[in-house]
Design a protein that fits this description.
By secondary structure, the protein is an alpha/beta fold. It folds into two domains: about 5-270, TIM Barrel (Alpha-Beta Barrel); about 275-370, no CATH class. Helix content is about 40%, strand content about 20%. The strands form four sheets. The chain has an eight-stranded parallel sheet with strand order 4-14-13-12-11-10-6-5. A three-stranded antiparallel sheet has the order 1-2-3. Strands 7-8-9 form a three-stranded antiparallel sheet. The chain is globular. The N and C termini lie far apart (about 50 Å). Bound molecules: zinc ion. Zinc ion binds near residues 305 and 310. Its cofactor is Zn(2+). It catalyses: 7-aminomethyl-7-carbaguanine + guanosine(34) in tRNA = 7-aminomethyl-7-carbaguanosine(34) in tRNA + guanine. Its EC number is 2.4.2.29. Keywords: Glycosyltransferase, Metal-binding, Queuosine biosynthesis, Transferase, tRNA processing, Zinc.
Length: about 375
């Protein structure tokens, strides 16, 4: 087991890459999908079940944890890994994005962001220094710089101003993080959909120096076409020998398109959230289990899937427990969705290593185009 954080690239195929991130808490195979454990849990899943789906790393949310139960309490209880019973790597976001999207009465200054909690209205302040402190208290393995970004579309000037503030905060984050062997600090590229600003941001981050780099400010309402256009150039502006993380993405076809463009890590609430609203992701697209066409269907969701939901239960049962609002419905569909997302990543890792990513991608789209199996 390594004592330091490192990244090694094993193979590339076009712009797609596969490799390994090594940390003292275990290895992360890339491209990697990180399930989101917002409030110190991946909803409806035991940690060992999340691991069984093939996840190497989880994401935790600084904003939620600082408000409840607080980072200080988690630290007193031995840190986030022990608290939530997940001993493998954890990446935490900086809280910046969620403060801007969830908190009330936000006020943004050079110093940071003051806001009121969406839970009890209490007043808080997040700064680069406070965000680094919270993520250290949590014991996060991969710490994200404190930043902020506008929703898209936005004017060039507005994006530039926000990006330059985030770059000043990146320097303050780096200074506050200090030297912590075994822990990584990732910088976050901003610049919206403006190529010149993405370049300026990448230069600023490279000058500071980070263990990994995120492409931030996407998946904020711009749509897939704009996102892919930015990914056509943005990842290549970042150091080749460090992991590249696309934050908050996405749907299966977003993920495939991002990996194709050189992204190594992603996270999204989609598989777990959709599991609770009756949506299942399969090789043949999205299946809405609440649809009446499933009510007497004895077949599994996906006959080629080896998850517990597909191995042991029929569509008719999954339909029934969803309609009856039984807790097992969220458990089974979340498990299936996380399993599907991890299988997707494994398929891409294998295809990149074998130099056949283009063929794999063609098959991926062809299977989805077939659509769900015919109703009985
Ligand atoms: Zn399944």
């Amino acid at each position: 087991m390594t004592e330091r954080f490192s990244f090694s690239l094993h193979a590339t195929d076009g712009r797609a890459r596969t490799g390994t991130i090594s940390t003292p808490r275990g290895e992360i195979r890339t491209p990697a999908f990180m399930p989101v454990g917002t409030a110190a849990t991946v909803k409806a899943m035991l940690p060992e079940s999340v691991r069984a789906t093939g996840a190497d790393v989880l994401l935790g949310n600084t904003y939620h944890l600082m408000l409840r139960p607080t980072a200080e309490r988690i630290a007193r209880l031995g840190g986030l890994h022990a608290f939530m019973n997940w001993e493998r790597p954890i990446l935490t976001d900086s809280g910046g994005f969620q403060v801007m999207s969830l908190a009330e009465l936000r006020k943004l200054t050079e110093e940071g962001v003051t806001f009121r909690s969406h839970i009890d209205g209490s007043r808080h302040m997040l700064t680069p220094e406070r965000s680094m402190e919270i993520q250290q208290l949590l014991g996060s393995d991969i710490v994200m710089c404190f930043d902020e970004c506008p929703a898209l579309p936005a004017e060039h000037d507005r994006i530039a101003e926000s990006m330059r503030l985030s770059m000043r905060w990146a320097q303050r984050s780096r200074d506050a993080f200090g030297d912590r062997p075994g822990h990584a600090l990732f910088g976050i590229q901003q610049g919206g959909d403006k190529e010149d600003l993405r370049g300026e941001s990448a230069e600023a981050l490279r000058a500071i120096g980070f263990d990994g780099y995120a492409v931030g400010g996407l998946a904020v309402g711009e749509g897939q076409e704009v996102m892919f256009r930015v990914l056509d150039y943005a990842p290549d502006m970042l150091p080749e020998d460090k992991p590249r993380y696309l934050m908050g993405v996405g749907k299966p076809d977003d993920i495939v398109g991002a990996v194709k463009r050189g992204i190594d890590m992603m996270d999204c609430v989609l598989p777990s959230r959709s599991g609770r609203t009756g949506q299942a992701f399969t090789r043949r697209g999205v299946v809405n289990i609440k649809n009446a066409r499933h009510q007497e269907d004895p077949r599994p969701l996906d006959e080629h899937c080896s998850c517990p939901a597909c191995r042991s239960y029929s569509r008719a049962y999954l339909h029934h427990v969803f309609r009856s609002q039984e807790i097992i419905s969220s458990m089974l569909l979340t498990w299936h969705n996380l399993h599907y997302f991890q299988e997707l990543m494994q398929g891409m890792r294998d295809a990149i290593a074998a130099g056949r990513f283009a063929d794999w991608e063609t098959d991926f789209h062809a299977q989805r185009a077939e659509g769900d199996i015919e109703a009985l």
